[in-house]
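We were asked to recover a plausible sequence for a given structure. The inputs and outputs are reproduced exactly as logged, with field labels preserved.

PROBLEM: sequence recovery
POSITIONS: 101
GIVEN STRUCTURE:
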């Protein structure tokens, strides 16, 4: 079983964080804990993009909040882009697991 740990930064960490671009307010989560899923990834994962909405929560071995959904329905194709902010994360060493096998 995975134990989820909150990735939210403390107030002190927010003040001390270095951001790649100037930001008027400090983010709650570290830069780099955001992923983007596009058409190919959503299809591989079997995700129904029509149900994606900002503020929704998805679960991998992390919990992430959907922060952006973009849909571009062109003449010949439909493209989707979903951005997710990872909020809680659990990891384990695959090396240790493979050594046990």
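RECOVERED SEQUENCE:
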């Amino acid at each position: 079983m995975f134990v989820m740990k909150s990735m939210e930064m403390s107030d002190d960490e927010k003040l001390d964080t270095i951001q790649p671009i100037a930001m008027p307010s400090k983010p709650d989560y570290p830069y780099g804990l955001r992923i983007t899923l596009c058409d190919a990834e959503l299809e591989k994962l079997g995700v129904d993009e029509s149900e994606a909405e900002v503020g929704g929560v998805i679960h991998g071995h992390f919990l992430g909040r959907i922060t952006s959904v973009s849909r571009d329905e062109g003449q010949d194709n439909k493209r989707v882009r979903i951005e997710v902010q990872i909020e809680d994360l659990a990891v384990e060493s695959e090396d240790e697991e493979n050594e046990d096998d």
